[in-house]
Design brief:
4% strand, mainly alpha, 314 residues, three-stranded mixed beta sheet, 5 strands
């Protein structure tokens, strides 16, 4: 007999670039220092541990939070840190005042990244902040429903389309489902639309969310367009995941330009599977070592990123 379905998650991904250009974190550190960041991190971890995407908390809990954290942290510091998080946008103040919870879009993105492989993915409609495009297949339950009952940690579906169809067939009137079916667009339609592709396939949105999470770059539509073009051309998703991983580790001044450059290159070279991409990367590294011109730039080609993309900034 199965027990109560698990609501929290066992791990949550944090971007390695969190201290490199995240203005909200910069503002928190400036106002509250490292103690403030540790309090913010602790409260986020409590959200992931218990309810997954929010944490039931009130100012009356400040003393308990300070005691559990230790290290000389006082309740006044906890309260001040939470207020700073509201001010800079690390926590959603409206949901705290209305429902007594700590949450944010960032917390919910990390949560969804973990639970998106579950067959059943449900959340409280009153607490959820993300748009439909960011969480394909997620169902929003009414406030009086038990969201935990449907959030079982089951095995991943065999394919994205099968999972979406399985969820859609079980939808009831009391539940609201977010689902946008992938749309395959021709090159002619893409050109007629001025190079903007939409609606985007579910896998493209999933990979773009992975890019945002790992590269700490947001609203980079050229990256989403490049991912979509690659998928429609038959490039495997694990290749694009590898491109994003490489971008995150590159230290490039513009991760968006860097990623788009690589994707356009592999499109032109028809690098469709992971083994071919790995061979390409190894060959590029070898050529770079042989030339060793001392510039220290990785361009994945003879043109610089700025020249290739016409000097655009994303």
């Amino acid at each position: 007999m199965s027990g109560k379905p698990k609501q929290g998650i066992d791990f949550a991904g944090w971007s390695v670039n969190i201290f490199d250009g995240d203005t909200k974190i910069d503002k928190l550190l400036e106002a509250q220092g490292w103690q403030g960041f540790s309090i913010y991190f602790y409260l986020c971890q409590m959200a992931y541990k218990f309810d997954g995407y929010f944490y039931k908390w009130s100012y009356d809990d400040s003393t308990t939070t300070a005691r559990r954290m230790g290290g000389g942290i006082r309740s006044e510091t906890v309260k001040a840190t939470v207020n700073t998080c509201f001010r800079v946008g690390l926590f959603h103040k409206g949901l705290f005042e209305e429902h007594g919870i700590l949450t944010s879009k960032g917390i919910q993105r990390r949560y969804y990244a973990v639970i998106r492989s579950r067959r059943a993915r449900t959340v409280n409609a009153d607490f959820w902040l993300l748009d439909a495009e960011e969480c394909t297949g997620l169902r929003l339950l009414p406030a009086n429903a038990d969201s935990q009952a449907a959030n079982a940690d089951s095995q991943p579906a065999n394919a994205d389309l099968q999972a979406a169809n399985a969820i859609e067939s079980k939808v009831k009137k009391s539940k609201v489902e977010i689902h946008t079916a992938p749309t395959v667009l021709s090159a002619a339609r893409e050109k007629a639309a001025g190079g903007t592709i939409g609606p985007y396939p579910a896998k493209a949105r999933e990979l773009y969310a992975y890019f945002e999470e790992n590269c700490n770059v947001f609203n980079a539509r050229p990256v989403l367009n490049a991912i979509t073009r690659c998928l429609l051309d038959g490039i495997m998703p694990d290749v694009l995941t590898a491109v994003i991983d490489e971008t995150a580790l590159s230290g490039a001044n513009s991760p968006a330009r860097y990623a788009v450059k690589i994707m356009d290159d592999i499109l032109a070279e028809q690098v469709r599977d992971l083994s071919a991409y790995q061979a390409r990367s190894a060959n590029f590294k070898k050529q770079k070592e042989q030339k060793s011109n001392g510039t220290g730039r990785e361009n994945h080609g003879s043109d610089t990123e700025a020249e290739f993309l016409g000097g655009k900034r994303y």
